Amino acid sequence: MSAGSRAWSAPNSFANDVRGSRIMATKNSVASYLDRPKTLPAFVHVDKVALRFRCWIKDDLALLTGPDRVIVHKCILTYNLIDDSFSMMEPRQENSGLNQGQILRRQRVPKPDGSGVYTWRDLFIGADIMVRGQVVHIVDADEYTRKWYMEQATELGEPLQAPTDPNEIREMRERRKRKDYEMAKQRRIQADMMQVEEVKHRFLTYDRKVLRFYAVWDDRANIFGARHYITVRFYLFDYSIDCQEFEGSRTGKKSRFLVRQRVPKRYKSLDDMKDDTNCISMDDLYIGARINIFGKDIFIYDCDDFTRRYYHSQFGEPMHPIEITEPSVPIPRLPTPPSNGLGAEEDSIQNCKMLRPRPAYRDMAKYKKYAGK
User: What is the predicted pLDDT for the residue at 177?
Assistant: First the structure.
């Protein structure tokens, strides 16, 4: 037997069933599942309504000693109005070493005296409830929970402060150290960037601009000492100095006296090379100044035209050269003694020239040419 056309009619309602049956439909006998009651049941109002509280649990570990023995768990307690059930979880912390997360699954919590289960009337700020042998201290609630309690004409009270956990104190110290390290790192990066920008600016502004000074180092106080004529070149780009020595005068044969580097004003050890504030600068170089380059007292007596113009534009004072030439003193020479009569006069002169005299050189071609004349 076939099921008939009524089995496949959609949408279906009680009114259609009545019309299709033998019973005549009346006004009072027609009903529909779409008709809503005038008042909704209580479970519809409280369905999916959860009250959230902040709480803490104290855990005493007897096997440990020191500050890590007491652990304070800061948790979130959730109360569901539909069935008076509780759930509790502890937010996870990085590198805490604790098994954090879900502490209590959703369930009803009975009171320790056996008078029933905990309800929303037992929950307020400052309340202590017993959950599975642990005393839960409620210290605060979220904004939605406070508004819901205000609708019920109940005041929760001011929030309380939970005790500080030793692990949290340690974490705060580590976080502060990391923050200080990051701030110091950022400051170093900014300082390096500013230094790079300054170096870039100095390179674009002062590249190939060199101050040239002519100086002299008098070393005649020492044995075999002499006057050393030196050219001091100061590079405006990085404040480095190099020196060249000229033999006899500043136009003589040149050689390297000092490689390009930062020169400290007072050199005692290699640690003085690390201090940039103790290096020779442009203020220490001028005509008439004495600078100490690694123990050598060098006197500046002149400079080139570019240096003279640059100092005049920077300081507004002209620089004039200083005369350092000394009058030449002829080397005294002993007179040649007269001949003693032994041999020719040339032989006597050979005796004055060396301790072991040699025979005088005689040009035989000239001797043959002028012999007998």
Answer: 93
Q: Is 373 helix (H, G, I), strand (E, B) or coil?
A: coil
Let me know: does 140 contact 160? Beta carbons within 8 Å: yes
Q: Which residues of 49-73 are buried (b: 16+ CB within 10 A; e: fewer)?
A: ebbebbbbbeeeeeeeeeeeeebbb
From 228, 77, 187, 214, select the one nearest 141 (Cα to Cα). 77
| Amino acid type, 227 | R
Note the helical H segments in 268-363: 305-315, 345-353
Apex 264 CA angle, 258 and 268, nearest 5: 100
Over residues 16-26, mean pLDDT: 44
- Looking at per-residue pLDDT, the higher value among 4 and 197 belongs to 197
Residue for token pair 């002062």: 206
The sign of the CA dihedral 265, 266, 270, 275 is: negative
Q: How far apart are alpha carbons 170 and 94 in whole angstroms?
A: 12
- Could you tell me which residues are beta bridge partners of residue 297? 292
